[in-house]
Amino acid sequence: MTRLLVGSLIERTGLQMVAVGCAEEALLRFCREHFDCVMIDVAMDGTAGLATARAIRDRCAPVLPIIALGTGELNRVLQHAGFSAVLETPRDGTQIANALYAAMSPARAGATLH
Prior knowledge:
The chain is mainly alpha-helical and 114 residues long.
């Protein structure tokens, strides 16, 4: 799933998204700006996605929710790597938004879009 498609799906739900093109840009943005959640496509980035998530946690935001977009083969690894949630190729913005809401606030974990 492309960055533009995910962005379009997320923005249709009323949430705002900032897309970055590489791990270095992500680290710079996340260490300088406030974000409620991070979503990383680890299927596209391979181990770079895992390394980026770890770097964000270590350097910038140890408690920031990080959601992985992955594939079936990676899901078990991702769940043990400390991601707040793992989505396997989401089909629509509602699925993505529900995962974001659940990850961002335990108090809002029951809040979903339909």
